[in-house]
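Page 42, continued from yesterday. The earlier attempt failed because a stray header line got pasted into the input along with the sequence. Redoing it now with the clean sequence only.
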Amino acid sequence: MKGKIILILLAFIITSCKTNGAPENFDYGKVENNIYSNSFFNLKMTLPSDWLVQSKEQNDKLMKLGQEMIAGDNENLKTAIKASEINTANLLTLFKNEVGSTTEYNPSIVLVTENLRIAPNITSGKDYLVQAKKTLKQTQIKYNNIDDDKIKKVTINNQELYVMSLSLDYMNLIIKQDYYSIIKNGFAINLIISYVTEEQKQELKNILNTLKFN
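This time it went through. Structure tokens are written below.
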């Protein structure tokens, strides 16, 4: 049952690991010595040594199931998701615990990018989150506060990002997600943290606070 919760979380992210439409020097990044680095976006983020990075194969499986859940029987949304595959890339998925290994909620952080070449009017993380909210409203997942105006500016290591907070009720849990977004090199860079407790949120924010752009 907890596996279903994980898929609900990942279902929010319409993404895949295809590189069509990306520049030749596009980089998915790598993890070495507990540091995720990406040469295309010139970013680094320190990861806890005891947290688990998902492999490409694990990401592909989770994303496929998540896409099916988010679209449901909505054929227009299925088409939109399919079209989005050529412009998006999942760079990193990190869980505190092994998937399915615990009865507790498994907090996570996801780093995903989208090429904005077909959306020239999106020039800030706030613009991107406004559009993301419109897409999320079309899904079969019901959020508690999606109509609230909760997009705020935050600063992490001298970089300005925008954040949107959402939640939903599932299996007697209130699952919370914070979407952080920033525009770099013609891409929207998005970091999504998922949690149920304030302690889990603080653990995830401690990871986010190591994010640096060179």
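Notes: The helical segments are 2-10, 56-71, 75-84, 125-137, 198-208.
Reminder to self: strip header lines before submitting.
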